[in-house]
Amino acid sequence: AEVASPAAETIHPNNVRRVIRALEMYQLTGVTKTEWDKRSLVQETAYDARILALDYHDRTILHRRIEMRVDQMMEMGLEAEVRALYEAGLLKPKSIAGQAIGYKEFLPYLAGECPLSAVADEIKAATRRYARRQLTWFRRNKAVHWLIRQPGETSEEILMKAQQILREFDN
Length: 171
Description:
This protein is mainly α and about 170 residues long. About 60% of the residues lie in helices and about 5% in strands.
């Protein structure tokens, strides 16, 4: 709070990792986290980049694709991967990996507190929440050009739309 009161108001005191990071930023650079956040919103990029983002006309399609991907990961051995990391001592609740979607949901299962089906359901729910946050973040950026996939639209048609946007930039 002494170093950067605006950041102190937005970071919960129990979120030790974020508090430490904010203090490190100030200590290493002399610039507060709040000031870094402001700069990141208005800073011009050194690159002539085009940002294209894909969304679906119907959000249920995105949700269905997430569910299919999680099911596929489970079929391809996600449980064995997580179990191996856990048994090797590399997956702990407070570790960075232990906070990752697809890993942290396994911890109650490995402790015998829930069934495997609950793990898959929670991974799907966490991934949907993460996708929603990503979409929100991208929508704030006015430089993003959105490709909204319509019902029945093929990947090739989406690619053609993307190419058209890029051609318009080149002109």
